[in-house]
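tool_call: predict_structure(chain=1)
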Amino acid sequence: MTTMSEKPSTPRRIADDHVAQVAALDPMISTRLGVHPEDERQPDLSPEGFEALAEQARRALRALDATERAAEKDGVVLEGAERTCARLLRERLTAQLALHEAGDHFRELRNVSSPLHKVRSIFTLMPTGTDQDWAAVAGRLRNLPGALDGYRATLTEGIARGLLCAPRQVLAVSGQLAAWTGQESDGASWFAGFVAAAPDRLRPELDAAADRATSAVAGFRDWLLGTYLPAADGTPDAVGRERYLRSARWSNGTGPDPAEAYAWAWEEFHRTAAEMLAEAGRILPGATVRETMDHLNRYGHAITGEENIRGWLQDIIDEAIDALDGTHFDISGPLRRVETRIAPPGSSGAPYYTGPSLDFSRPGRTYLPTLGQQTFPTWEIVSTWYHEGVPGHHLQTAHWTAAADRLSRYQITLGAVSADKEGWALYAERLMDELGFLTDPARRLGYLDKQMLRIIRVIIDIGMHLELTVPADSGFHPGERWTPDLATAFMADHHGSDTARRTSEIDRYLGWPGQAIGYKLGERAWLQGRDAARRRLGSAFDLKTWHRNALTQGSLGLADLADNLASL
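tool_result:
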């Protein structure tokens, strides 16, 4: 019961309190938000740590239930922002608890965005400008072994329950850990390299802490290979329909229809393949798409050296900001600040983005994994930087952050739905093509190749996990059932990635079921919403205004996204 001096609870207050409570439990969240920079904790990856987060989700859900019952009793109808926030909060919390109660966290080991990756990525989000900042880094390095002990306990419980990941994931992660420790290159560990930037007077303490962290990672890798891998023997790569749908719901904000998505993706595949062939003909008349890509890799424009490609990609973002600001978007103040960085060794093969802190003291950042490369063909990467930077991930995330006074903090942080974010970023690539930024045939072929990658993701992600057959009219192994080997061959035939990137991609799909389909399904929702808004408004439709409204509505699941966009 509330007193006269207390404000009645609302979905937005419940959601934002939930963010505060989760941030108190999970230092990875508080570090992402840019609060409590003095915190030396590592995430609690033990079974008890996962249960504490689940219990907080249950508390928030109970509070939401009580608030909605009280509103109904009083005849109050939730509308507008409160209704949107309540719907998102309920969907996200129930999806989270479905994963937890199935015990999926006991086998959550994969090559990207697993709990394990938090113990290193948390450092890349920390400030390092003062002695106090470096003291927090040292403390967090000292606490890394304990975090790995907790994670080992969680995975051990998974062994006891018969909930294990496939050996393929163990081997992929073990390879990453070898890169973290320097075992892969016989060089310094990533942790040692990270603290090398500290002032000399602080180095003895930091070096010792980095050595301790490195030893703990090496020991964890030994445990994975010596204990977990034998236990995981025989665990299939495919997760099956029940787990697939549960995981796909978390990434997409709704339970997708796999049969409809699979059939639609094949239609997109054939359409895009024809468009790629036509574009390849503009570059190398009479050649196949694969031959044209090989030609561009050998003779097309390329940048040599990590620092040179980093600077070149930074220029791509800066040029996009200057060109789009005032015409199709409003990009001012801290929204204009986004950095390009080289991803640390042992990252997955795909470029990625990290958002700014809530106060923008840490800017948005794009990361390029080089995977040992020193020469970088540029034809295939321009649209990717529109995806990761501007007008893609950075513009959406930075707009959300700048609108934090009008949106629920939950909607722009914990409640963000992967398919909404990835759908916008893929829409951003298409928008740049529509606006004429990809008229160069080589760059446009690169854009189409990235579209094809996201189409392939839908086909083989669903196909492998549900063990579907290849359609008779596919032109590729008709009637055969999808396997990782067949998926790898399909990607080699139809996407311009090298062997290392293909392996990383297949590992990712198998280890993170249902996430990869959200790119194309999300883009479809964004396009459907825009087209419906244009039809509704007719000549009054203004793309810049629609973009502004769309980028300040906060995150939505695919169950609601297209309809909300249509109403803007």
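agent: Residues 1-6 have pLDDT under 50 and may be disordered. Proceeding to next step.
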